[in-house]
Fold this sequence. Notes:
Largest sheet: 5 strands, antiparallel
Number of helices: 10
Structural class: alpha+beta
Strand order of the largest sheet: 1-2-3-5-4
Strand content: 15-25%
Number of strands: 11
Distance between the termini: 50 Å
Order of helices and strands: HEEEHEEHEEHHHEEEEHHHH
Shape: globular
Mean pLDDT: 95
Amino acid sequence: MIPPSVRRAVEREIGPVVEARPVGGGCINEALRVTTARGACFVKHNAAAPPEMFAAEADGLRALRDAAPEEIRVPEVLAMGGEGTADDPVWIALEWLEPGARRRDFGERLGRGLAALHRARSGGWGWERTNFIGSLPQENGGAATWAEFWRDRRIAPQLRRAREGGRLPGKEAEWERLIARLPDLLAAAEDDGPSLLHGDLWGGNVASASGDPALIDPAVYRGHREADLAMAELFGGFDAAFHAAYREAWPLRPGYDEARRAIYQLYYLLVHVSLFGGGYVAQTAGVLRTIT
Length: 292
């Protein structure tokens, strides 16, 4: 059911609502396919989320849409609003991407397109605003080097959150050794410079829009392109054609498979430790041990 305040806002911003029905949209927000007099759109709403959550998502989607090559689709942001209360949930309306079976070259096009997207460059490491990874704030303040950014904006905030929640994976000494080694371990990646990243590239955030690859639910920032690839490898959902096409379009520097992939995956695992706990604590500790 579409909340009354959201319905009124959608009708004001887009057009009269003809139909609203629930669709899959993740575990954080309620999602709807809303048909208006102007056509269908995708609407998410959340009574508990801060207003800046969808504003940050819109910012990321616009950046991706502006930079995306022809191989990759990104939904257009149509409107958003709300105060984040029971009576006035925050909401965002996006272009409706009609689902469809993936074309045979879906993975290849996604890999080639992601490499092209990663070549979008403007500015240094970081982003102009804090955004969200899942429901957690993601800090994006700038840094002079990639190693500093990964230490101060990715690993350190999530380690602090894990400690405060009594869920620290592994031993403090192991984390201290890793942090001390980050400048050396990430040095080879430094030369590539910042790329525009999706930021949360797991399989659920890649849709099939009438068979074409589409990126949704980003956590955008300017970082090293390998971080997107490491997330894509963490939970699966990307075929061999994707990985091969990416590496053919833009080969990776030595050391990614041996250490840097695990370093990037630790961030996403720590996020899952804070959100879900359970087996992610042991999994994170295991990955930490492989590089310390």
